[in-house]
């Protein structure tokens, strides 16, 4: 079981940032309104996430670190499928298999808080401790027991940049949650609970929102909100393309293509504009689970989405009031 967890974790936990993403998503699932992320040495040394969510009860703690889907993996070839299946209910087990993990949590109703540890997949029994309602998850020494994996990690700066990118995507899609990001004991980002447009400015900076146009378009059962940068925005847009479908960050060539087309059409410029766009669509018309860890998406009618995005952006760019 320990070995299976290590293999599974190696497949899906690629680097500190992938662990951070899973941990942050758990805090959000737990209803947290305040989340603090403390990272040491790009996450190679420590990732600590503290939330004020509903917490985990002492009874549920061992389960939280256990692999729920062991029965799904029987044959050798199944190991290859893990990555594509994603790991529903397996993130913490996988992280705990390749790090020294400490989970501390208090759920109201319990007499007191509990903590539990996992080291290279060996899970301890929960022990009593003290803390307010919520959860703190610490991940130390990622891949300490997989030296070959650890060797593939990049410099502290690069690994932190990946963590910061994960943080930005989550912060951009959860404006109502307050976030704090620290690296090597220095605050890098302090975000108050605000509305989405204010959050975009807080995350990407005033320069972005001042040189961007607002998008707010609605059709039958689809809507597009957000901001698209105008050519006056100086920064290269390659890494500033944020697209969320029903609140989830997704990477999609279709959307960048639609934006580029609209830019060319209206402004006669061949560019990849920077943008933050939130598409709301009937969940039946999109499959976000194509690859749960890789932010891919499959639209039922990709053409219609492309058209809607293209026309929306076209209209906004061509508006005399922009
Ligand atoms: P999944 O999120 O798919 O259920 P995970 O391995 O990510 O699987 O988490 C396992 C379980 O641990 C969750 O289902 C949840 O019950 C609990 N859990 C993890 N993190 C938190 C948290 N921050 N607050 C409350 N419960 C948590
Ligand atoms: Mg999870």
**Over the alpha carbons, how many angstroms does the gyration radius reach?**
21 Å
The number of helical elements comes to 11
- At CATH's second level, what is the architecture of the largest domain? 2-Layer Sandwich
CATH topology of the largest domain: Heat Shock Protein 90
What's the order of the H and E elements? HHEEHHHEEEEEHHEEHHEEEEHEEEH
CATH homologous group name of the largest domain: Histidine kinase-like ATPase, C-terminal domain
* Biggest sheet statistics: 9 strands, mixed
The figure for the number of domains is 2
Query: Would you identify the regions where 5 or more consecutive residues have pLDDT less than 50?
Result: 69-87
What features would you describe in this structure?
It is a single chain. The chain is elongated. The strands form three sheets. Strands 1, 2, 3, 4, 5, 6, 7, 8 and 9 form a nine-stranded mixed sheet that branches. Strands 10-11-14-12-13 form a five-stranded mixed sheet, with helices on both faces. The chain has a two-stranded antiparallel ribbon with strand order 15-16. Helices cover 35% and strands 26% of the residues. The chain folds into two domains: 2-191, Heat Shock Protein 90 (2-Layer Sandwich); 200-318, 2-Layer Sandwich (Ribosomal Protein S5, domain 2), CATH 3.30.230. The longest helix is centred in the middle third of the chain and has 17 residues, at 156-172. Residues 69-87 have low confidence and may be disordered. The protein is built from eleven helices and 16 strands. It binds adenosine-5'-diphosphate (ADP) and magnesium ion. Residues 22, 26-27, 30, 51, 53-56, 64, 88-93, 135 line the site of adenosine-5'-diphosphate (ADP). GO terms for molecular function: ATP binding; ATP hydrolysis activity; ATP-dependent DNA damage sensor activity; mismatched DNA binding. Residues 200-318 form the DNA mismatch repair protein S5 domain. Keywords: DNA damage, DNA repair.
